[in-house]
Amino acid sequence: MIQPADLPDTIAVFPLPGALLLPRSRLPLHIFEPRYLQMLEDTLKTRQRLIGMVQPCPGPNGQGEDLHAIGCAGRVTQFSETEDGRYLVTLSGVSRFRVTRESSGFAPYRRCDVSWAGFERDLGRTEADAALDRPSFLNLLERFFTARSLSTDWEALKEAEDELLINSLAMLLEFEPEDKQALLEAPCLATRRETLVTLIEFALRGGSQEETLQ
């Protein structure tokens, strides 16, 4: 387990719209662009093997891409190479971070100086959601899955621990990048569940794909 003292001041970041990583969760990635292949190679040489997942956002006047202030770092825990040189990678979520500034340098990928302050809970134990009304939540989820023609293992959802249930849905369900950012920034599991419920209810009411949670 990574301790607070092990967290570096600078990490490579992977800006990927709509891709959400949360602490103690796993995110599969398919890496094939040369700059990100270099990022993976460099990351595997470090002791912590951390990559920061962060949502990009349009820069001023639509020029380039800025980064959201808060992202989540994951440790490379699995990787395999395909015959044509691509990599299938699994990141295990470690902790959220706040970008303090983007680093300059010669790397073809982006690197940021980051602060881990305020996210100490991410390195702790699995969270529970004491206020979760599981039957009501699953009923809402079933309506959403039916409306979107989605399928799932309902028995597994009924048995899943609170954090696994809520975080997996937050990561897997398709929402706008700004909505994913709101899920990431939720200060605790209960708030993330409330945000998730709001997004699902909004979608069921026929919310526009262009609208996002404010």
From TrEMBL:
InterPro entries: Lon_prtase_N, Lon_prtase_N_sf, PUA-like_sf. Residues 11-204 form the Lon N-terminal domain. PROSITE patterns: LON_N (PS51787). It comes from the Bacteria. Gene3D superfamilies: LON domain-like. Pfam families: LON_substr_bdg. This is LON peptidase substrate-binding domain-containing protein. It comes from Leisingera aquaemixtae. The lineage of its organism: Bacteria, Pseudomonadati, Pseudomonadota, Alphaproteobacteria, Rhodobacterales.
